Amino acid sequence: MEESGKKEPQEQLDEETLFIVSQTFKALGDPTRIKILHLLSQSEHSVNEIAEKLSLLQSTVSHQLRFLKNLRLVKYRREGTTLYYSPDDNHVMNVLQQTINHAQHH
């Protein structure tokens, strides 16, 4: 219960939470990663498909997917020798979609 209208002290963010939040915004702060995540939000794709659809080098796509995978923003499944990538964090994908909507209706 709050006494005499005073608010409880605000909880401090721990270092791990701060790191994850800042890395997530770093991920969403790069136009190439935004394009990749937006494409994957529509359906899963292989590295080659992503490179082709977004007119990017395969090495660029692989590098960005590694970054996104390390943050657990994308996951993959293997089919033969091909890896198919898809989103792995609905919270972040929702933030991305809301931000895209905001930008398009600004």
From TrEMBL:
This is ArsR/SmtB family transcription factor. Residues 13-106 form the HTH arsR-type domain. The keyword DNA-binding applies. InterPro entries: ArsR-like_HTH, HTH_ArsR_DNA-bd_dom, Metal_resp_trans_reg, WH-like_DNA-bd_sf, WH_DNA-bd_sf. CDD domains: HTH_ARSR. Keywords: DNA-binding, Transcription, Transcription regulation. The keyword Isomerase does not apply. Gene3D superfamilies: Winged helix-like DNA-binding domain superfamily/Winged helix DNA-binding domain.
